[in-house]
Amino acid sequence: MPDLAGQIRAAARELLAAGEVAAVLGFAPGPLPMTTRPFAARTPAEADRLTWNGFCVMNPANLLPEILAAVEPPRGPKDPPPEGPLPKVAVVATGCWSRNIVVQIQEGRVRRERLVILGIPSRGMIDRRKVLRRVGGREIRRVEEGAHELRVEGPGLHETIPRWEVVRDNCRTCVHPTPVVYDRLLAEPVERTGVDRYAQVAEIEAMTPEDRWAWFRREIAPCLRCYACRNVCPLCYCPTCFVDDSRPQWVGKSLDPADTALFHLLRAYHCAGRCTDCGACESACPMGIRLRLLTKKLEKDVLELFGTEAGLDPGAPLPLAAFRPDDPDEFLTAGPGGGAGPEGPPPREEEPA
Amino acid sequence: MEAVMTGTAPGQWEPRIVAFLCNWCSYAGADLAGVSRLAYPPSLRIVRVPCSGRVSAEMILDALKAGADGVLVSGCHPGDCHYLQGNLVARRRLSLLKRLLEFVGVEPGRVRLAWISASEGEQFAALAREVTEGVRALGPARRLAKTLPEVRHA
Ligand code: SF4
Ligand code: SF4
Ligand code: SF4
């Protein structure tokens, strides 16, 4: 296994010392075993605090626009932008994170020329809940990550766990582990084929409406509506989120199951065609809710209906801001004479004017 | 949304369907059905919107939350949109929403989309009948309806 932490530190030191970037966004160790936190190194000395391991589950793309703004020279709201290029920021990016950066470029959130992307072909991040379940909830004081195993230690606890068994669900079914955009690649590209990426979704689709409803109710019942899943997502940057709208109040402040259901449906729906299945929302959820099942379902449908996947091409229009005249009409209740309608313009992806 | 949902005779259940009709085609189609004295079930609560593309997922779910038994969204035929492409964007959005709702167990048939032009009064009446009967067969919608009272603003 290459020493990725060492390579990230070396690249960060070099970029910061040369003045090529104003900050390097990566991860620092967290306060507890199996945790990390996002960290932006701004000096070569700070670069030594950067780390890399299987517990880097947050999505650094989420912080990128903020950090890019923070490294710009200070100016008043009415001052013109400074002359010359703005300072750059380097960021570590696995496959899914790089696709989130592509979505941010598509949505005008970041500019490619201000980024130095340190690409990391991903081996999959670890789900700490799975580790805790494996050790029966006993206290873990130290975790050492090897190439294919985790050595877990605590009071009276010495266990070796095969790594792949505790990798997150999204990573286990990931088909784009290698970054799609990068400036430097810090390890050999990884290929993953033969994964059934929609097995979890298909299992639910096969159930009856009654069972699906029962599953959904059960799945979201523990939700606290803390909105950590929203705050951690790089797609959720609305200045006023629909959950905070008060007139009309789309989602009530109560814990009525209908309000919680609406929150989950709309949050997932807002990410349709944009979500890269990075899993940050699920990793952030304190209640272990499998939020990804909804976004994954949408990902599957976007691919089936419109033939696109999020974040693969910075030049492509976003699937829900575009259309094709021959999009499937699958659920029209075409009244008599309704249905296909007159011939539209030639089929091509168009962005509304 | 509650305002649109009132007006059911007590005791007996009649489907209540919120119909978002676009100003340029479907609303005019509904109007024509009325002017032509065509009989169709009184189950539709019509909300006039500028374009089917204006109808958001929030609006549809809000209707279900307020107790609607079904939601119909109707706009101009593809190619006829007053805003050229609003209905085509709506089609993409609503296909996904409909699939998502079914994924979590909302019965197929609760949320529907249809194209009705301004000259299609008869088609509108037929659609109203078809949608009403479909929803009647499903029975009252309980799954996303809110049971706790909403806090009202002054
Ligand atoms: S993070 Fe989990 S508990 Fe918090 S709002 Fe999201 S789903 Fe609910
Ligand atoms: S949940 Fe929707 S409205 Fe809220 S921040 Fe995310 S995208 Fe925006
Ligand atoms: S919805 Fe979840 S999985 Fe999708 S991009 Fe946002 S944080 Fe990642």
TrEMBL record, chain A:
Residues 266-296 form the 4Fe-4S ferredoxin-type domain. Residues 313-353 are annotated as: Disordered. GO terms for molecular function: iron-sulfur cluster binding; metal ion binding. Transmembrane segments: none annotated. The keyword Metal-binding applies. Keywords: Iron, Iron-sulfur, Metal-binding. It comes from the Bacteria. Gene3D superfamilies: Alpha-helical ferredoxin (1.10.1060.10). This is 4Fe-4S ferredoxin.
